[in-house]
Protein 1
Amino acid sequence: MHANEEVRTKRVEPSREVVCVLGASGYITSWLVNLLLQHEYSINATVRDPHDLKKTELIEEGSFDLVVEGCIGVFHTASLCYFDVEDPQ
């Protein structure tokens, strides 16, 4: 067995620890969430409001305090997206 194979086959012990995923509605992040669930983590997640794409609290200080409280780690995958472009060139 090569060193890389050993890393790939190493089992991660199940956990009930809580992690936070900011921006969990994205395609790539959905895979992250799936992987975390497979390893039995509990997840606090934030997602974009599909009914109000302009609504964001991403830059408001303290807006994520409750969702990250008690978490052992945070995956920050959220970003500001602007959908209105006046001059795309």
Protein 2
Amino acid sequence: MMLGSMLGTSTDTDQGAYAYVVSTFEHCLTYLGSGSSNGLDWIVDALDTINTFKARHAKLQSIPAVEATVKKVAQHVLQSLRNTPAESLSSQVLQLTSRLQRYARLFDAHEALDTLNVSQTLIALASPLTRHLQRQVDPAVASAFVDALCTTLRSNDDVIERILAVVWYLYSATTSDAIAGAFQAWLQGLTFEQYNHVLVSLAALCDQDQRIATPDQEHVYLSLVSVVVSSYTEAHKGNAMRNSLFYLVPKLSLLAGRTRSVQSLLQILYILVLVSKDKTLTILPIHVSLILSCVLQVSHPTATDRLTLDADQAHAVVEAICHVLQSLLLNHRKEVVSGPLSTMIGVLQSLLHCFRTAHVVVEQAPPKAIPILFAHAPLQCAAPVARVLEHLGQKKFAGASETQHIVAKHAPFLLMEYFAIQQNASLCIMDPALKAALLPGLYSLMDVCGPGDRDLVMTGLENAGKLLYKNFHTEWAENHKYKGQ
């Protein structure tokens, strides 16, 4: 705090505090040779404060009182990197490396701090240090090393693959938020072309079965994809970035179609939410189709052989699917409605079967049901499905009149599916709580339908279903038609 307060001009600074902090900073140099962790930690914190202050005060050109001290720290770091075996490097030296690189960039002090030699020495250490950390995991050193490497190489086009490889290996050894944070900071500092290169490189990795052959390897890969997809900035946006992003989605779809890990499946669905949540990213109906085709891997014929779910995991999958669908409707509704709306309707029809209660032994799932989810029916997670139905049907979400008209032509088939389920007395949705949870979504579908659309529902039902639908229609007209909109 005191260091932050004294980093102003001489006219508005407490000179006593200024002199005290500078003196203390210089005193800590005595600890560099001894390797005292306390002294090194203090210098790391001091450099963090200086860098943060400079980032907030762009007009600040230099801090003469600490320049000589920072230069001595840089000399010590360079000697430590050159003379210390990889297995003996401390996390503090690596932390100082990254802080000095930031300082040099902020104050344009690359020559004064000899950052070129620091960079070359750090690059030479990359392979031996990575091998050491694979043999003997030290999360603090691993995180500091990734931070130093990313900070040092952030502007070099020819080292992207190397950084990806290092981050991959170290993240495999120790899943660390600090490593992910350093990786994210590096990504956000990349140019437009470099960020696209990272996306394409990650997509290519998905084709290498030997690199992504086990659930653990899938987890590492998908974790890194999540970081990359969530790290693009306004400077990265454009058609090229969008195309690279949607070059990655089919690769994820292939992975979803072969994985044996429920956790990997959930990670993929989470990535689809990240891809679809940005309203300002211009996407086309074909891109929505790619996202939905990835969702449909949940119903892949081989899924029952590959994936073993318990009830909690089945709930999580349903909620994740609904999160993807809701994100698409909220952020890219026009592209959904003008393109693959029928595919989304099919997914929602399948989800309705998850809430059926069997009164007889059912040897196989109904044709439209998702087998791995139907095995745990009735699932107690109707509310997320109802929310998607509400976003699909309510007029306040419907947008332009032509969009509303298209939704109205599809909504009857969702209502028809629900009442077709209910007309089967031996395999219907019986739980009152589930029926109550679905009701707002069903009412919203009725809201968006015209009289002819509502009458269409009757044509696909048997007598029992028609009676149920008539009663529902009456309740909707009396309790919701005018009050609920």
Protein 3
Amino acid sequence: MDISVAVSTNHYLWNDVIVKIQEIAQAVEAEHASLASRVKELEVELSVWKQAHATSRDAAERQIKARDEQLHAMKQPNGGPSITYEKSLILCIIDGTKTIFSPAYFKQGEEGGQQAAEELTRGIQQHLADDKDIGPQGFSLWTSLYINKRELADDMVVNGHCTAAQFERFCVGLSQTSSLTIVDVANKKGVDVKIKEYIKTFAGLPQTLRIIYCVQEAPASIWPVSSTR
């Protein structure tokens, strides 16, 4: 074989190898940049989730503490603190495993949560407006929503009703209403147990005038869970 031909062939082969190595390097660099960008996006999303979770948890803890203090005061014997509750107590219990707010509220995030709470409260007040057993002093309304938060979030996201972030912000907005508490339970059985305990605790109090239990038949702003799936 001619030496010059062999050298030329080797030179061509080396050039081809170098070009391929450069292409691989460029592809790796592009993939690295894409992964780095995705990591930053996930870090931001994680930060939002942590902040929303902390806000929701703190709000729920404050509400539960306030209710525990009120309940303790109500149960004080005659020798206890002199506290007078002039208003009747109306309890609204929502079984979130059977009925839940319209998906339209979830899409609006925190604002949707606030709006849902306001409309629910207004609907209950209108429902009780003509109740003759409620005195002129009015009533205090306590609403408790029992849900499996993780399961409901997954259901909403999978069915395209909202994003995970929108769901979390919705819960934050809902929890900002002082008269509404979200009770997160592990499963359906847990919901039943919690609701029974709640009713048993408050039903015997002289201040309790009405207990509204929302399962399927509920105010206009509440939809059966089955209709959201």
Protein 4
Amino acid sequence: DKTVLLFTLGLAGLTSVLSGLLPALQAAKTDLQTTLKDGGRLTTGAARDGMRKALLIAEVSLSLVLLVGAGLLVRSMWNLLHVDPGFKADNLLTLRVSLAGRGYSDQQLRMFYDECRARVQAVPGVRSVALAQSVPTQGASWNGVFIAADKPVPSRADMPNAGRLRVSPHYFETLGIKLLRGRLFTTADNSESQPVVVINETLARRIWPNEDPIGKRLKLGLPENQDEDSKPWREVVGVVNDVKMNGVDRDITLQTYLPYAQMPSNSLGLVVRAERNPAALASAVEQAIHAIDKDLPVFSVWTMDQLLGNSLAQRRLTLVLLASLATLALLLAAIGIYGVIAYSVRLRTHELGLRMALGAQPRDVLALILKQGLKLTLIGIGLGLVAAFALTRWMASLLFGVPATDVLTFGVIAVTLLLVALVACWIPARRATKVDPMIALRSD
């Protein structure tokens, strides 16, 4: 993008000019006569020294803020990677098949998908196959309100809303979703049988707290739109564990599962449990489906691990960008600390030589220089902690399982920055201990 490139180059040029403007103006005000009279020795004024220290403190503060933000995101990502999604994601392959626009009747849809499942099940390396309108991390196929037969009908604003997902028998077994109460769907749950529904644990606790939901009845949709033929009462036959349907970083929602044989759809997905590497089965599974209809579109072929990774892609990108900026800021802060202390050592060569000539030990000189650098660093860390405490609250929506003011993260980052500063100060400080007093005094 030429516009972005030109803007970036222009911004870089403007930053360079502004960064060099103040030092240039200060250099222009230098008294040449005084400088020549001093024999060309390094000189510095209180204003310039104060400016260097202020910039160093600002660098340390900024790097701490960025490092704290990156640290919080790292902890959030760690928490997300260890969240139980409610199913077994390993060795799962997912794909979609659509019959939209082909004019299939409900019976033809059932026959097609039954044959499709049977052919895929016969592929070598396939352990089990199930059908579903959607798979975890991609959300429910649709959401809607419902009413319970044994509960008062609430106002429209207070009506519970649940995800609705049409699935086939063996769906729960294929994904490794646990049955907590009752039973799962079987082939007997068809268009001729009693309408049934399986619910998740959260819905059971919400609607029937301290009750056994098995055998209870519910209807999907608004009360005024109820039609016994299209919206029959459904018997709750099973309760399964909660599943992160909308992504591992999202809250658990109310969820209902419906047998697809009772509510056929012209667009269903397949979930395939493989013996091992599921990606290696993708081609064979597609061939099995095309054996039924070679023109049938098969799309969205993903392993479940890929889907889980994709659901965290935005968070991962944010983490990488902020971590990169934080690392760069830390590097610049370390270079800045080293530069300021090294320059200070050069300016104080005569003073250090005189101290050593009067009996100061190398460790005394080392402590003197380290104290100077660490004092500035601690001021920067203190200001950075205050700024980070105020600013990280704005990134609370990006965090998961960790507070925006997490004491552990703040403490670890502060100690890390202090150690980096100690190393940056140590190098010029060690050099200062090797100053020869006679040479230092003679050079003055």
